[in-house]
């Protein structure tokens, strides 16, 4: 919370008192505005990470390094270290048992090196764990680029705070994917079909509106078009086509109920974005 102390002023002149009164009001207004902005920023972070707990398994033969990494991870509210392994023979087995979101992997370990572990993960298509390679073996770096499970590469000189920042980025990405899945579920209930490009664009618009707390439809269209490197009028046309197609084939009474529109009203992109955003945030 932003704090500011305002001195008590004693001014004999009425005119000066009025001026200082207005001055104080302006300061209070600025404090309030800054607090509102900071609250919005905190709310956006909450939206992105709400309900997400990233599970991390560490495979590192250097015990002090592995403990330091685990402590850095466990100080964060959105992630947790669920295990430490100081040799490579049981890493794949623990992945199968614990199903971690992320494996932080050293490439040179006793028993079985990191490349062998990556081969095991790559071969097993049921394993969804992503890997962050954290190693001092720079000669191995070129060899690991063929592994699709590898998300990032870090050398041992990288501070643990940088690893945590990357994990936070992955938390946001995972949260956004889950939010997108929820958005699609609601859109499908309304009557949209995935086959139309406009449905996917609508999803992007809703996600942007949620993450950035943006309600101005023109701003939403402009930003999504920029992100997709697409003409904003083309984007709008694709979304309008998807809405018309949905309205043509949907169960209109059900759609009206979900979107909370009147018997003689038709759905609009702004109304759909607003209602889906409401359902996601409630």
Can you offer a commentary on this structure?
This protein has 282 residues and is α/β, with parallel strands linked by helices. The chain folds into 3 domains: 1-40, no CATH class; 54-170, Response regulator (Rossmann fold); 191-281, Winged helix-like DNA-binding domain superfamily/Winged helix DNA-binding domain (Arc Repressor Mutant, subunit A, Orthogonal Bundle), CATH 1.10.10. It is 58% helix and 10% strand. The chain has a 5-stranded parallel β-sheet, sandwiched between helices. Helix 6 (197-212) crosses helix 7 (217-227). The longest helix has 36 residues, at 14-49. Residues 1-21 and 27-49 have low confidence and may be disordered.
Compute the number of structural domains.
3
Radius of gyration: 26 Å
In the CATH hierarchy, the architecture of the largest domain is: 3-Layer(aba) Sandwich
DSSP, total strands: 5
Mean pLDDT: 83
**Ends distance:** 25 Å
Can you tell me the CATH superfamily of the largest domain? Response regulator
Short summary of the structure?
The protein is an alpha/beta fold. It contains 10 helices and 5 strands, in the order αβαβαβαββαααααα.
Note the topology.
Blueprint: H1 14-49, E1 54-59, H2 63-74, E2 79-85, H3 91-98, E3 102-105, H4 114-123, E4 130-135, E5 150-155, H5 160-190, H6 197-212, H7 217-227, H8 232-249, H9 252-259, H10 269-281
Parallel strand pairs: 1-2, 1-3, 3-4, 4-5
Helix pairs in contact: 2-5, 5-6, 5-10, 6-7, 6-8, 6-10
């Amino acid at each position: 919370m932003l704090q500011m102390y305002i001195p008590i002023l004693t001014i004999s002149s009425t005119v000066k008192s009025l001026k200082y009164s207005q001055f104080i009001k302006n300061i209070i207004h600025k404090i309030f505005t800054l607090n509102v902005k900071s609250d919005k920023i905190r709310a956006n972070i909450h939206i992105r990470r709400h309900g997400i707990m990233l599970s991390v398994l560490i495979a590192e033969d250097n015990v002090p390094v592995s403990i330091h990494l685990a402590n850095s991870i466990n100080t964060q509210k959105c992630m947790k270290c669920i295990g430490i392994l100081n040799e490579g023979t049981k890493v794949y087995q623990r992945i199968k048992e614990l199903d971690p979101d992320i494996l932080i992997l050293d490439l040179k370990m006793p028993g079985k090196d990191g490349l062998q572990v990556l081969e095991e993960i790559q071969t097993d298509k049921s394993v969804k764990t992503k890997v962050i390679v954290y190693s001092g073996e720079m000669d191995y770096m070129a060899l690991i680029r063929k592994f699709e499970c590898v998300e990032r590469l870090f050398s041992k000189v990288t501070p643990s705070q940088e690893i945590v920042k990357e994990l936070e980025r992955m938390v946001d990405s995972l949260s956004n994917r889950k939010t997108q899945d929820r958005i699609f579920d609601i859109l499908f209930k309304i009557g949209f079909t995935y086959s139309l490009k406009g449905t996917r664009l609508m999803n992007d618009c809703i996600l942007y509106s949620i993450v950035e707390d943006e309600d101005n439809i023109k701003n939403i269209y402009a930003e999504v078009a920029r992100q997709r490197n697409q003409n904003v009028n083309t984007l709008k046309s694709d979304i309008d086509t998807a809405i018309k197609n949905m309205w043509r084939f949907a169960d209109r009474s059900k759609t009206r109920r979900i979107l909370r529109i009147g018997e003689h009203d038709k759905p609009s992109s702004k109304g759909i974005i607003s209602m889906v955003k409401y359902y996601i945030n409630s």
